[in-house]
Amino acid sequence: MNECDVREAVIEVDSLPAFLRTMAGIAAAHQTHIICFDADEMAGRGHVEKAVRHAVRSCREGRAISRSLEMEALLYAAGTRQCRIGTEIGLHEGTNRSYVCFCPPSPTAAEALARVVKWVDEDWEEIDAARQKRLMERFGITEEELEAAGGRIRLLVYERVALLEINR
Q1: From CA 71, how far away is CA 109, in angstroms rounded?
Q2: What's the mean pLDDT when you consider all of the chain?
Q3: What residues have CB less than 8 Å from 30, skipping those under 6 apart?
Q4: pLDDT tens for each residue of 46-93
Q5: What share of the chain is helix, strand, coil (3-state, %, to 5)?
Q6: Which of 28, 35, 134, 163 is 20–30 Å from 80 (CA)?
Q7: pLDDT tens per residue across span 132-151
């Protein structure tokens, strides 16, 4: 995904509105979009990449549901048209394990953001039982579907992301 750069970060958020303003200022100064996804609510990096790819295409083609690329990406990641639900997989107050996406890639924005986030190089791809349960609930995935997909929850989540294109 060359249009965007996805990194992992641990982010301490005391005040969500203040942190979002800081992030928006950095994004504007570096002419990029910065989108944060709660890693614990995602089916891994591929989930982020697919959601962002759909959001970029939707915005580019004038079919966006929301007014910003950031919210559009969260909507695709959540597989919903409801902004309230989309924000549930973004940042929250407290400690966040977050996939941070820069569209377009901006090493200088990442450097500036490093003042308020801690970049990490960790493997967040494992989907344990608790995360699988959250994903199944969020995306309405049944045990029967999971069994039919050979237990591959990621494929079912990716399908739900893509279905937002159809379910507009």
Answers
A1: 19
A2: 94
A3: 106, 108, 109, 112
A4: 999 999 999 999 999 999 989 999 999 999 999 998 888 889 999 999
A5: 50, 15, 35
A6: 28
A7: 999 999 999 999 999 999 99
Dist CA 34 CA 21 (whole Å): 11
User: Do the Cβ atoms of 153 and 127 come closer than 8 Å?
Assistant: yes
Q: Could you give the domains of the chain?
A: 5-163 (3.30.2380.10)
Task: Please give the backbone phi and psi of residue 44, each rounded to the nearest 5 degrees, phi first.
Answer: 95, 180
d(CA 150, CA 22): 43
For residue 38, report the phi and psi dihedrals to the nearest 5 degrees.
Answer: -70, 110
Distance CA 93, CA 6 (A): 21
Structure-token pair, residue 90: 């973004």
